[in-house]
Design goal:
Length: 359
C-alpha cells in the first residue's frame, strides 16, 4: 500500500481525506473518479473520496468564464461557484459569453477579467482549441488555469474538474437499452453544438452504448443549446421522419421535446430522455414526462474546480483531473437522489460576482 502525507491531505490506496471534519455535513466527503494519469484519453480512473479545504488563507481573486446561462445546467454551475466562494472566503467574478457561437466574446471576457488583477482562471471553454493561446499566456504569468466541465484541449492547464461526457452519453444509451428490452427502437439524437469536446464525447459514448444493438439512430442533429434552436431542430426532424420511438438529447432538447410532442399529440408514442441534468429535466422526470437522465453533478464539478484553484495558489497538494461519478436518475430513484449536486435552490437567479475587486 502506497501512503503519503501532505499538508491537509492523506493519500492511501487512492483515498483522499482532509484532516478535519468541520464541514462533514456539507457537500463532502464526495466519492469521485481520479484520472490516472491526468487527462488520459482512455478514461483510466481510480475511485477516491474528495475533501476540500476548510478555508482559503486569503481573499484570492478568481475569474470564471462559462459559455452561457441560457439553460439551467450552467445556472447550477453559477450557484455552486458563488456558494463555494463564500464558504472558502475568496473573491469571484463570472462572465458568460452568451452561446457556443460567441468565441470572440469569451476570449475578450477572459482577457478583460484576468487583466484586472485576477490570481487564477476557471474556464469552461466554448471550443476545444479556441482559448489555448490565452491559457498559455496565463500559465506563463504563473497563474493557475483550471478546466471546468468542457475539457479544453490546452496542454498546459493546471488541472481539470470534469467528468468525461462519454459517460453521460454511454449511460443514456445503456438506459435506453433497458427501456426497449431487446425490441427494435428508432431514435432522434440531439447531442448539442458541434465544436466543444463535451458534445463530441457525449455523442461517441451514446453511439458506443448502442453499437450492435436493436436501436437505430435515425438522425443526429447538432445545434446550440438555446431553446429556440433546439425546438426548431426537433420540429424539422419530426417533420422528416415517421415512426420514431425516442427523442434523446441535451436538457434543452428534452424539455422542448416534451412540449412539442404534447402539441402534436405524440406524447404517448415517443418517449424522451436527456443525457444530462437540470431543474427542468428533474421536474419532468418527477412527472413521468422524461424517462430519465444521467447527471454529471455539475455543481460538484464547479465546487471542486474552485477548491483546486485555491490549492494551486496556496501551494497545497491537489489532484490534476477529478470528477464526480455519473449516475442515471429515473422517477424510481428520485427519492434517494441528492438534488443539490445538480440543480440550484429554488428561486436562484444568476450572480456575476461575489466580493468583487473591480469598481
Amino acid at each position: 500500500m502506497l501512503k503519503s502525507l501532505f499538508r491537509g491531505w492523506v493519500v492511501a490506496t487512492a483515498i483522499f481525506s482532509f484532516n478535519s471534519t468541520a464541514f462533514a455535513e456539507e457537500w463532502f466527503p464526495l466519492e469521485v473518479d481520479i484520472w490516472q494519469p491526468p487527462f488520459n484519453a482512455d478514461r483510466s480512473r481510480v475511485d477516491a473520496v474528495y475533501h476540500p479545504l476548510e478555508k482559503a488563507s486569503k481573499e484570492w481573486r478568481i475569474c470564471v468564464s462559462i459559455p452561457h446561462l441560457k439553460d439551467a445546467y450552467w445556472i447550477t454551475v453559477n450557484y455552486a461557484l458563488v456558494d463555494e466562494a463564500k464558504r472558502l472566503g475568496v473573491r469571484l467574478r463570472l462572465d458568460e459569453a452568451g452561446g457556443y457561437n460567441k468565441l470572440d466574446v469569451q476570449r475578450a471576457q477572459v482577457n478583460g477579467c484576468m487583466s484586472k488583477g485576477a490570481d487564477a482562471l476557471i474556464v469552461s471553454s466554448i471550443s476545444a482549441d479556441g482559448l489555448n493561446d490565452l491559457v498559455d499566456n496565463i500559465i506563463d504569468e504563473g497563474k493557475p488555469v483550471v478546466d471546468l466541465i468542457n475539457s479544453i484541449s490546452a496542454k498546459r492547464i493546471t488541472a481539470r474538474a470534469a467528468v468525461d461526457f462519454w459517460d453521460n452519453g454511454y449511460q443514456a444509451g445503456e438506459y435506453l437499452l433497458e427501456l426497449v428490452k431487446g425490441q427494435f427502437g428508432r431514435v432522434l439524437w440531439f447531442p448539442g453544438p458541434k465544436g466543444p469536446v463535451w458534445s463530441a464525447s457525449g455523442d461517441q459514448g451514446f453511439r458506443d452504448a448502442l453499437a450492435d444493438s436493436t436501436i437505430e439512430i435515425v438522425s443526429t442533429e447538432w445545434g446550440d443549446t438555446g431553446r429556440s434552436v433546439q425546438a426548431e431542430l426537433i420540429e424539422k426532424t419530426l417533420d422528416r421522419y415517421d415512426d420514431i420511438d425516442f427523442i434523446v438529447g441535451t436538457t434543452v432538447s428534452a424539455e422542448a421535446a416534451v412540449d412539442i410532442l404534447r402539441e402534436r399529440g405524440l406524447s404517448d408514442k415517443i418517449r424522451v430522455l436527456s443525457y444530462y441534468y437540470g431543474p427542468g429535466v428533474h421536474n419532468l422526470i418527477r412527472r413521468g414526462l422524461i424517462a430519465g437522465a444521467p447527471t454529471d453533478k455539475q455543481g460538484l464539478q464547479a465546487r471542486m474546480a474552485l477548491d483546486i484553484a485555491i490549492r494551486a495558489l496556496e501551494g497545497e497538494t491537489f489532484v490534476r483531473h477529478v470528477g464526480p461519478k455519473v449516475e442515471v436518475i429515473t422517477r424510481q430513484s428520485l427519492r434517494d437522489f441528492d438534488v443539490t449536486t445538480s440543480i440550484p435552490p429554488k428561486g436562484f437567479r444568476p450572480v456575476f460576482s461575489f466580493n468583487d475587486w473591480v469598481d
